[in-house]
Write a structure and sequence with these properties.
two-stranded parallel ribbon; elongated; 7-stranded mixed sheet; Spore Coat Polysaccharide Biosynthesis Protein SpsA, Chain A; alpha/beta; 9 strands
Length: 369
């Protein structure tokens, strides 16, 4: 069993394992963790955070009678990230280590992660993608591509090669640097990396094994939740710049909507001037919906009709700003009359910026904390 006292000189360790219907894998996982801790003289506890699996997990842990293994059955606010956060709150030791229950993460690498923390790292990842890291050959092309795409999307937040890994370790005082943790989905490691301001991030190579028993919990819904999570992290890290980027992306989508509606109406032989007006109104409405739902999602509880009226009003004034800046630019630099598109782009940016600040601070005001 893990030593009651630290023999190795390494810090004591709380291992958090979120589970849902993983009873088949737990005996081997516990045995391997115990063997590693005994071999290296580690003082450790194992917190199995189970989302009410009802698959025999409770009976299994009770039968094992290992005092260093604690089972917590969670019947509310279930989910992988929430389970890990609950585990952090219950953990009793200095180092917090998270790993999966499906035997994809090798417990034999735990001492290497601890060594990196002892050498001064803020955050250590059991990594598939650094030199020496590998995955099972039958992992599958689609899953490999999915993992690589998710890693690429995380690049604005960290230079780590495998920030998607669910096998990581950090000290308790590093975790305390985060004002709040509220991840969506299953990528709790990336949330901690960003919100705890981890600078010295190190990666230890692991072999990522294919699940042998049970079913994977990865689904399309979880992948979509990951995109939501990235958006929230962008707002946390980049503030108004992230909101502005989303606002600009919504504005671009509005241009596509405008041109599509206009094209359809022209094909239908609707009067041209009416078609232009309808296309503008439809694109303004879709922009409003997307900004209310995505860019300024915190304001969804506000008055729908009041916000829509404010948005249409601000957009109308923004169109005037666009026009005025474009004309003013041509007046200041007459040479641009040969390439008026440059002046038009300046006007568009001015109108976009005006619309953003009006929307951010007036139409979709953030409610008080």
């Amino acid at each position: 069993m893990p030593h009651a006292q630290t023999v190795s000189g390494k810090p004591s360790l709380s291992i958090i394992v979120p589970t849902f219907q993983e009873a088949e894998n737990l005996p081997e996982l516990i045995e391997r963790i115990e063997r590693v801790c005994d071999a290296h003289g580690l003082k450790a506890e194992l917190l199995i955070m189970d989302d009410d699996s009802r698959d025999g997990t409770e009976e299994l842990i009770a039968a094992l009678q290992k005092p260093w293994v604690r089972l917590v059955v969670r019947r509310e606010n279930r989910g992988l990230s929430a389970a890990v956060l609950d585990g952090f709150r219950l953990a009793q030791h200095e180092v917090l280590l998270v790993m999966d229950a499906d035997l994809s993460h090798p417990p034999e690498k735990i001492p290497e992660l601890l060594d990196a923390l002892c050498a001064g790292a803020d955050f250590v990842i059991g990594s598939r993608y650094v030199a020496g890291g590998t995955t099972d050959e039958d992992w599958g092309l689609l899953r490999w591509l999915n993992s690589k795409a998710a890693t690429l999307l995380a690049r604005p937040f960290t230079s780590a090669k495998d920030p998607m890994s669910g096998f990581f370790a950090l000290r308790r005082d590093t975790l305390a640097r985060a004002a709040s943790l509220n991840p969506i989905g299953y990528k709790i490691g990336l949330e901690i990396l960003v919100k705890c301001g981890c600078r010295d991030v190190r990666e230890a190579p692991i072999h990522f094994s294919q699940r042998r028993r049970g079913k994977s919990k990865l689904s399309l819904r979880e992948q979509l939740r990951y995109l939501q999570h990235l958006r929230r992290l962008a707002v946390h890290k980049y503030g108004d710049w992230a909101h502005f980027a989303q606002f600009a992306a919504v504005g671009f989508s509005g241009t596509v909507v405008n041109l599509t509606v206009l094209t359809v109406l022209v094909w239908a032989h609707a009067p041209l001037r009416l078609s232009i007006a309808v296309a503008i109104l439809v694109s303004m409405f879709t922009n409003f919906l997307l900004n209310r739902w995505i860019t300024f999602s915190y304001a969804r509880s506000g008055s729908f009709w009041g916000q829509m009226a404010g948005f249409f009003g601000a957009s109308s004034i923004g169109a005037g700003v666009n026009y005025g800046v474009t004309v003013g630019t041509l007046w200041l630099w007459p040479a641009l009359e040969r390439i008026p598109q440059v002046a038009a782009v300046i006007g568009i940016l001015a109108g976009l910026t005006f619309n953003f600040f009006m929307s951010r601070h007036l139409v979709f005001r953030k409610p008080p904390e």
